[in-house]
């Protein structure tokens, strides 16, 4: 967390006590959230912080590679992201996110390209939501 605080400072985002609490909540979510949803969760947990600060935190985290934005049905969501290379599988119903290690193949890429990286995310339905939808 100290190193993260240091890197956030280079983006001009200083971690106060409340902001650190917000960051901790975000880290522990394991789901994708909109800034408005994150703001609501923070309020429920007694962390009083402005919506603008949530936006600024997400922006700063994204810049330093500690958060990833996802465009889902026209809305931007964010998830906390560890620095090691990985992928995600995301439930379209409850927005829960699970990390996936291991990479897909590069089969099917056009010839003669130098490729430096890739981003792969899967969207679907988690076991909990599947059970719930099959229960009746
Ligand atoms: Zn991630
Ligand atoms: Zn789900
Ligand atoms: Zn990969």
From TrEMBL:
Cofactor binding mode and count: Binds 1 Mn(2+) or Fe(2+) ion per subunit. Binds 1 zinc ion per subunit.
Signal peptide stretch: none
GO aspect biological process, one term: regulation of secondary metabolite biosynthetic process
Protein name per UniProt: Transcriptional repressor
Cofactor dependence: Mn(2+); Fe(2+); Zn(2+)
Keywords attached to this entry: DNA-binding, Iron, Metal-binding, Repressor, Transcription, Transcription regulation, Zinc
One GO MF term: DNA-binding transcription factor activity
Binding site for Zn(2+): 91, 94, 126, 129
Top-level division of the source organism's lineage: Bacteria
Binding site for Fe cation: 85, 118
Residue stretches in coiled coil: none
Organism from which the protein derives: Alicyclobacillus mengziensis
Annotated family: Belongs to the Fur family.
Record-annotated membrane-spanning stretches: none
């Amino acid at each position: 967390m100290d190193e993260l605080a240091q890197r956030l400072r280079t983006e001009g985002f200083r971690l106060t006590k409340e902001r650190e609490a917000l960051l901790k909540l975000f880290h522990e979510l394991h789901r994708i959230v909109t800034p408005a949803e994150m703001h609501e969760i923070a309020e429920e947990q007694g962390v009083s912080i402005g919506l603008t600060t949530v936006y600024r935190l997400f922006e700063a985290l994204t810049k330093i590679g500690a958060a990833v934005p996802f465009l889902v049905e026209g809305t931007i969501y964010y998830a906390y992201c560890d620095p090691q290379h990985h992928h995600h599988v995301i439930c379209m119903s409850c927005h829960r996110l699970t990390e996936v290690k291991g990479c897909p193949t590069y089969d099917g890429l056009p010839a003669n390209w130098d490729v430096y990286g890739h981003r792969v995310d899967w969207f679907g339905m988690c076991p909990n939501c599947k059970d719930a939808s099959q229960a009746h």
